[in-house]
Amino acid sequence: MSSPFHRRPRRLAALAGAATATLLLAGCGGGLLAGEDESDGTEGPIVLGMVTPLSGSSAAIGPYMENGAKLAVSEINADGGVDGRDLELIVEDGACDAKTAAAAANKLVTQEIVVSVGGYCSGATLPTLPIFNKAGVPMLIPAANSTELVDQGLDNVFLINGTGTQQADAAVAYMEKAGATKVALMDDNTSYSVDIANLTAERLKESGGPELVAQESVTAGESDYSANVNAVLKANPDFVYWTGYYQEGGLIIRQLRQAGYDGAIMVADGSVDVKLLEIAGEQNAEGILATMTQTPDTIEGAEGWISDYKEQFGAEPGPYSTQSYDAVRVAAEAIREAGTTETDAVIEALEGIDGFQLFSGPLTFTEDHTLSSGGFQILESSGGAFTLKDTLQ
Amino acid sequence: MSQLIWNGLFVGSFYALVALGYSMVYGIIKLLNFAHGDIYMLGAFAGFAMLTVAGGLATSAGFVALLVVLVLAMLVTGTAGLILERVAYRPLRGAPRLSVLITAVGASFALEYGMRLVAGPNPEVYPVRLSGTTVHVLGARITLEQLALVGIAIALMAGLQYLVMGTSTGRAMRAISMDPKASLFMGINVNRVISRTFFIGSALAGAAGVMAGAYYGKIDFLMGFIIGLKAFTAAVIGGIGNIKGAMLGGLTLGMLESFGTAWLGGEWRDVFAFAFLILFLTVRPTGILGERVTERV
């Protein structure tokens, strides 16, 4: 997608790590000087950037990601930083919107970030890929996981979250396990959502198990989905899988139930939020299934981490707190391994990571720069919260 | 089939309520008030704030509480419409039409992100929600709450029809829409009548906002954008500037969407609906009920 914000940075890879020291001057009007300075980027803090939604439809997620990353930064800095240099995190609002996110990415590039550790909505993350690529910024994407991101074939892009393919595998595995016979898929026409729906549809056609009876796209941002719900229910499904985000998800669950549907409803990871259940309404929100990567609540032995998080931010961790925390740790590990903030060296170090321990298990990147195992599991809602139902192991 | 028609009518009555404000304002001062959808959002949030403040009292009173809140929220949004007109549009009364149009877009953003500052970016869930019994009529599944909402919408539109056709304010409105200068010469207080138009149109949008909040349950600061677009489409299809046209256009658009989804699938619904908008603009730019306008030199 072309966007008015695609501007070619004046200098490319060499500058990615450079002149971080002069950032300190930026505050007193030295912003212009920053471009002039040819410092070799070996002093001052190592700056990491994050584009995450702090406004717009997915604004609830941004703080979870920001805090997760901040927790990792403060832990690493307390341990003496990376090669004696502190880490610093700059967060920009991507609003889950392609144009806003592209502008935010450009802003981060001008602030000379070394590694990007953001990316939530796939549709908004996609346009940031070429921006960071041209600027020579390696990306560790903690949440966005559309296969479209991988299909770009850019060597600076690494996905910390399980991919759409892995999520679709988990969804189909559970549908078979639960004995579903007629499956309906609903998506919201965004990159992330369509991706999972299409991949799930492919697998359903191949598997010979549950039959795919309907696939419906809705328009995000509306209130009335009764027409879509009608179209889906005409096919008489006994399992509905919603692959979009939680705002529309809540409305659709409610409207499905109001229309008399009483079969199973499963949602994808973008909908795993307590707001989904609130919007759906108490009586409709029981027993909603979800495909989700590990969250702090469902990881054994994460209690210490959760209490650290609560102590520092006075709030509960949420979806993608752990992945963002891990993204920062992986970035730090790679820079430490590379011994420099040079783009190619960092990418090489990332590719070389073997068995680095993450929340989702030991990390080794595949050739596509995705996780070798997705770690998706099935959650179920009860009493207004999601709890672990099935690890699919 | 009957279910499709009912869905279309239900959604269409929301579109119609919002479209009325668009159409009235356009009819009188030839301004496309793009902030109108955000007035709808404002109504939903005003209702939300009142219900939250009332707390348990509202929950126990249920539907009655909603009716009271509906009226209060209409007053709030009506007043907001007055202020909007006074602050953003009246100073530009003599300015080129494009300037006013851009101001309207600016006002829309100001309302959206102003609300975001006040209420935060996260969606809110209405504390009182309508959930009634279902009745089956001719094979269509209809809930009593839907009937109540459509009833309110019809009552509001009937009230408006009387106001415009049967009162002196209405006569003044119609006079201004024909010729503002001549109306001024005839002793009509043009500014006051325009203010009243904004008040009425905004109050109707606010009512739709509260109804949407109570029925669907979810409100957020960007909720007015799409419905604003749809209401504009409805107003054009019905014949912009024509009150009955706005009502008819809303219902037509609701039907088009409902049938478009059923025939072509959800991803084609908006293509179908907006293709009709283009068709109307090419074949019959004055809309279903619009009158042929002859430009006078």
What is the residue-averaged pLDDT of chain A? 84
The N- and C-terminal alpha carbons of chain A lie at a distance of 39 Å
> How many strand units of chain A?
14
What CATH architecture of the largest domain in chain A do you see?
A: 3-Layer(aba) Sandwich
CATH architecture assignment name of chain B: Orthogonal Bundle
Keywords:
A: Rossmann fold; Rossmann fold; 7-stranded mixed sheet; 3-stranded parallel sheet; globular; disordered N terminus; B: 297 residues; mainly alpha; two-stranded antiparallel ribbon
Walk me through the topology.
The complex is a heterodimer of chains A (393) and B (297).
Chain A: H1 13-16, H2 23-36, E1 46-52, H3 61-78, E2 87-93, H4 98-110, E3 115-116, H5 122-125, H6 128-134, E4 139-141, H7 147-151, E5 157-159, H8 164-177, E6 182-187, H9 191-207, E7 211-217, H10 226-234, E8 239-242, H11 246-258, E9 264-267, H12 274-280, E10 289-292, H13 303-313, H14 321-338, H15 343-352, E11 354-358, E12 361-364, E13 377-382, E14 385-390
Parallel strand pairs in A: 1-2, 1-3, 4-5, 6-7, 6-8, 8-9, 9-10
Antiparallel strand pairs in A: 10-13, 11-12, 13-14
Helix pairs in contact in A: 3-14, 8-9, 11-12, 14-15
Chain B: H1 2-29, H2 36-54, H3 56-61, H4 63-89, H5 97-119, E1 124-125, E2 134-137, E3 140-143, H6 144-166, H7 168-178, H8 180-185, H9 190-216, E4 218-219, H10 223-238, H11 243-264, H12 269-283
Antiparallel strand pairs in B: 1-4, 2-3
Helix pairs in contact in B: 1-6, 1-9, 1-10, 1-11, 2-4, 2-5, 2-9, 2-10, 4-9, 6-7, 6-9, 7-9, 10-11, 10-12, 11-12
